[in-house]
Amino acid sequence: MTDVLSAEESTSSSDGPWAVETHDLTKRFGKRTAVNGVDLLVPRGCAFGYLGPNGAGKTTLIRVLLGLTHADAGTMKLLGHSVPRHRDIALARVGAIVDEPRFHQHLTGRQNLQILAAAREPAAAGRIEAALDRVGILHRANDKVAKYSMGMRQRLGVAACLLGDPHLLILDEPMNGLDPAGMADMREMIRSLVAEGRTVVLSSHLLDEIERTCDAVAIVDQGRIIRQGPIDALLAGSNLEVEIDCDSPETAGSLLIQNTYQAKVTVVEDGLHISLPVGTARDVVAEINRVLVTGGVSIYRLQENRASLESWFLEVTSRLGESE
Ligand SMILES: Nc1ncnc2c1ncn2[C@@H]1O[C@H](COP(=O)(O)OP(=O)(O)OP(=O)(O)O)[C@@H](O)[C@H]1O
Ligand SMILES: [Mg+2]
User: Fold this and answer.
1) Over the stretch 218-259, which tens digit does the pLDDT of each residue have?
2) Which ligand sits closest to the CA of 30?
3) By the 8 A CB rule, do 173 and 148 touch?
4) Of these four, 45, 60, 125, 150, which has the most CB atoms within 10 Å of its CB?
5) Are residues 71 and 171 both part of a single domain?
6) Is residue 133 part of a domain?
7) How far is the CA of 171 from the centre of ligand 2 (A)?
8) CA distances to 29, 36, 60, 214, 215 from 56, in Å
9) Range(s) of the domain holding residue 137
10) Domain identity same for 190 and 100
11) Both 265 and 176 in a single domain?
12) How far is 139 from 141, CA to CA, in rounded Å?
């Protein structure tokens, strides 16, 4: 009877809306709770960032999801399949890189993939060349991995994931150790995987990378999810900061004193810092620009502060840190 139920569940539940779904997931190491009552909902077909500072519990969550360590409490589903109960069915379509990908250094990239493919379904061997091509290392496939750069190893890691034609990829800190060009490549690769309809969950402590790469995010601190949702929606919930460099900050400040958009204006040495309330439309930024230029101020730089989400993120995480 259990088998019949399993088969039904494995087919009927595999196409729900969530690629990852956890409820009250908890993992403790002695007195330390590394994953603390996590309710995570990752929609299918997006790039999803699991964002948190060092020690927030990102790797531990991923290890729990993959069954590399057991949860102390809670439930989870991958691609609609309950794990650990249907772990094998679920993981057949999950590709993951946890920590740094490990390969046989004395073998070539292609040989490493051949070994990994042999351990998977028969179709995996047929995906090797396409996977190497896909991640841009086909031309180095006959070099020993020992000669690969960090970025090439990361790429080979992604190629290894692709051997299983994954619907879900889980990448722990995929940008770690990469130079800016390598990060840009990785970002592009992740976006192209999502464009094919796959779901990519990546962890990072770099807000900027998550913002650039992901559609949605969960912000985690000390094992707890503080916020999650589409990045646009989270941004809409934070202040809009504007930095302006101009020739006469005092004049500029006075021009904005009687503004109607509830701006908090601070005059600094070479310009203004302006903080606008949650939900302010971007048109207001254009209006501020107009007012200043019309008032005879020369503007050298005007920037909607991308750090606004960052400062908000830091504020939230540090506040929680203090209360512990
Ligand atoms: N095997 C373990 N035994 C004991 N404690 C552990 C173990 N693994 C992780 N921890 C603790 O759990 C907490 C979360 O660690 P984890 O590695 O998941 O964080 P992280 O968010 O991945 O951090 P980082 O950004 O540094 O990779 C930390 O306090 C860590 O010390
Ligand atoms: Mg980690």
Assistant:
1) 999 889 998 888 888 777 777 788 999 999 999 999 999 877
2) 1
3) no
4) 60
5) yes
6) yes
7) 10
8) 13, 10, 9, 19, 21
9) 2-235
10) yes
11) no
12) 6
